[in-house]
Fold:
Amino acid sequence: MVLSAEHVHLDSGTGCVHTAPGTGPEDFIVGKKNGMDVFCPIGFTGAFRDEAGKYGGLIAKKDADPQVIEDLRGAGLLLHQAKVTHEYPICWRCKTPLIFLATSQWFFSTESMREKMREANKGVKWVPDWAGSAWFDSWLANLQDWCISRQRYWGVPLPIWTCDSCGEIEVVGAQKELPEKPHDLHMPWIDKIKWQCKKCGTGTMKRVPDIFDVWGDSGSAAWASQKFPSENHGVLDETYPADFIIEGKDQIRGWFNSLMALGILATGRPAFKQVYMHGFVNDELGRKFSKSLGNFVSPEEVMPKYGAEGLRFFFLAAAAPGEDMFYSDRHVREAFNNLRILYNNYAFAGSYMKLGGFSPARGRPASLALEDRWLLSRLNSLITDVTAAMDSYDLSRISDTLKGFFVNDLSRTYIKLVRDRMWVGVRGEDSDAAYWTLHEALSKLLVLCAPVTPMLAEYIHQNFTRELDAAAPKSVHFLPWPEADGTAIDKDLERAFFTAQAVIEGSMAARNSAGVKLRHPVREILVVTSDEAVRKAVGDEAPVILKMANAKGVSAVLAPPAPEGYAKGVVGEGSATELVVYVSTARDDALMGEAAFREITRKIQQMRKENGFNVSQKIDLELALDERLEGLLGAHFTALKDKVGAASLSVARLNTGEKVFSDGMDLKDLDLGTVEIGFSKAE
Structure:
């Protein structure tokens, strides 16, 4: 007789299996369907009880199995004996085999609520969608009655009393229903509360010895601190159901299930409106973290290096909703370094804005430069994108979108473009526009970052926002969520800038291939394209390309130039957006003079920083260089003084007195000589 078609398969084993309803979940279900007795001669210790006859007292499987085999052999009933390796449940702590036992328990009749729970689940927003429509719905469709009792001591005692005479059952819903107030609602004090049975009048009502399944505690979270259900449903009007919950994928059969079951049971409604289900954190190879594997990473290892913000920023970007994430120290370090870029953006802006006397109270300037309008467009597109990601709980997209803005748009593009406009010596409408635009972007970016990097955002708010604006709220978390200004969004401008950035990237690739530093200007950049949109963008964004790529000219051409005197760079090779860029490598005296000017400027700025000079401190500068280099630099001496904050500049042998800071540099990569540099604090 084969009763279990759903549990017997022809592709493994013999194709037949014995059914023991008392010692297996599947066996119990099959036996129940077919009217079989639930026979279980094994006790809680794992040993056979006396009813097992000669096997009584033997530990099941461990001691009894060899004895049973020997008895079968002795009776001539043993057909074959062999060891078979197969999956089997084991204790996750001590790794010993487990034995299932059928026992008397208490249940919630959740099977009767299956369809109601499935219908209620359709109104819940799940992220990802398949977690609810596939996983959770499948779980509910096969839901069995919920066993709520446990045979343990510590925990919430089941509030069920039974009569020791007639078997009457009474479920107590609140402490006030008890005949006396217990010293404590836990064992052993609660078990001292007894009363005479009202039904038979002779028996005593005693509490059952079991405790409540802990998932019953968590499933009651929606009203755990409310006077429900002992008083009325009105106490939940403002707090039920929860707007949002978040947990891992193992909670399909755990918290998500208990919340839904108790919510439907108690109120007829699910306990939550929206769910975010995340995956597990595994190691870099996709393995579960485990001390036995030696791949376990403790917070004490991570926090000192990257802090809570670095770890949080990594986790938010590490995995799509519902998917497992793979922990990597390298990627956490990358997240931390990206946050350092964010911090440096504010440090740069704060320093220059304070020195420049900027105040956000002055309001928006009348005129904005091209790069200012681009950044405002990107800012408002960012607000739109992050708000949409927040609303849809697309957490990984939030952090990636924020990072793209403060790393690429702010740090690598806009700040580089406006650095000269924000220099301390520059005054006027152009610098005011740069200050205002950068402040507008940073102040709104800070609010967008606040939910993602709450502590870093608060630190920057105190040391940037409030120092520039005394009227700012005491905390960044008191600021309202920014709303996008649709009139500031110019997608055509953003696309043109995107093309310009691609051209700049291509020029960098070409420079690298030819060994030409970015500080050294080049005569021209040629973009090979027949795409009219690209040609237009190259023309419209030429000032941006020339400044960022340090070139004197840029143009779009239909065919590549002769290979001599040019280096080639390719962006997006093999893709539909592939862009080929050529950079001129020929240098005349004018280009070499400017390259030398930039190299010397960088060196002096480095010396100022190393010797503790702040941006506003003036110096008296002296240079020692040969006649040819002096001739090449002659046209740049005024700009050099302005760039390095020099009150005076002289070309002579250095005075190496105590107050002079001196160093030198070799310009051999420009085929030029050595420069000696010295300066002192200007009086």
About this structure: The longest helix spans residues 329-355. The radius of gyration is 38 Å. The mean pLDDT is 89. The longest strand covers residues 674-681.
